[in-house]
Specification:
Structural class: alpha/beta
Organism: Paraburkholderia antibiotica
Enzyme class: lyase
Pathway: Amino-acid biosynthesis; L-lysine biosynthesis via DAP pathway; (S)-tetrahydrodipicolinate from L-aspartate: step 3/4
Largest sheet: 8 strands, parallel, barrel
Main location: cytoplasm
Protein name: 4-hydroxy-tetrahydrodipicolinate synthase
Shape: globular
Radius of gyration: 19 Å
CATH superfamily: Aldolase class I
Number of helices: 12
CATH architecture: Alpha-Beta Barrel
């Protein structure tokens, strides 16, 4: 089973003149490898997968997997700034891929195609729109886990799917040998604490403002869209908290709160893309129905990007 602890980046999909910008995507993968993040999530909701056709999704995943291998084989620096020997090789960043849908059979077929790839796991939300009963949700996830050669990370995000993964459902699914973790976006402290205390699923904060609380309670980490910018600070926060340096962790988190709030002031991933674009990493492009941030928020993001402290 994979270890999903640490700070994970749910990668955006950069666009240039309407097409996927694979050069920018490669640069981002290298950037986050150098920052010391735990891993990457490809084709999660932050990556706008609903606007990508099947060939584009396949190409995006292929670029990410190839770029993480290239980053592992290229001399760089550790997060502390220490140079690595040119002959050294870093461990390739683990990659989790998002798999979405509301038809169990077609999702099983998609998972079968992913089984041959070197993935750390699959991130899967409840079936959207259909809003099945909890028994149907259990059967759905168990069928997908049975079809997968990779560990599954559950994605509990009822504001997108229309249905919650209830605690009893999650505890039932935790018994499956290939269901290993959860991206926790339901906003229920009771559920978060119950899962952490149960101990069978690694709990990762999916709402970025809950990162500090989740880690302090014993959670494994976070999948944080806001960590696209200044990822080293999020890694430092994680390390401080897991090492028991609470005062340092609190200071780091408080400093990150304005960034996190701006990253979600308008629908994700528009603020993240605007911030990265203002600093030359990507173009500020999204695909409809997603649109660029408002001019007022863009100005605040530019100011954030100019801060050096």
């Amino acid at each position: 089973m994979s270890d999903f602890s640490g700070i994970w980046i749910p990668l955006i999909t950069p666009f240039a003149d309407g097409a996927v910008d694979h050069a920018a995507l490669r640069a981002l993968v290298r950037r986050y490898a150098d920052a010391g993040v735990a891993g990457l999530v490809a084709l999660g909701t932050t990556g706008e997968p609903a606007t990508l056709d099947a060939a584009e999704q396949e190409a995006v995943l292929a670029t990410i997997l190839d770029a993480r291998e290239a980053a592992a084989n290229t001399a760089s620096h550790t997060a502390s700034g220490t140079a690595l020997d040119t002959a050294s090789k870093r461990r390739p960043l683990p990659v989790v891929v998002g798999v979405s849908g509301n038809d169990t059979a077609s999702m099983r077929a998609q998972i079968a195609r992913l089984n041959a790839l070197p993935l750390a796991g699959l991130l899967i939300a409840a079936p959207y729109y259909t809003r099945p009963a909890q028994a149907g949700i259990v059967a759905h996830f168990e069928a997908l886990a049975d079809a997968s050669a990779h560990p599954l990370m559950l994605y509990d995000i009822p504001q997108r799917t229309g249905v919650r993964l209830e605690l009893d459902t999650l505890l039932t699914l935790a018994a499956h040998p290939r269901i290993a973790a959860i991206k926790d976006c339901a906003g229920s402290l009771d559920t978060t604490l119950a899962l952490i205390r149960d101990g069978r699923l690694q709990v990762l904060a999916g709402n970025d403002l809950e990162l500090f609380n989740t880690l302090c309670a014993g959670g494994a980490g976070a999948i944080a869209a806001s960590a696209h910018w200044r990822p080293e600070r999020f890694v430092a926060l994680y390390r401080a908290l897991v090492d028991g340096r609470l005062d340092e962790g609190r200071r780091l988190f408080h400093a990150l709160v304005p960034q996190i709030q701006l990253a979600f002031a308008e629908p994700n991933p528009a603020p993240v893309k605007a911030l990265l674009a203002a600093n030359g990493w990507v173009r500020n492009e999204l695909r409809l129905p997603m649109t660029r941030v408002s001019e007022a928020l863009a100005e605040r993001l530019v100011a954030l990007g100019e801060e050096r402290a």
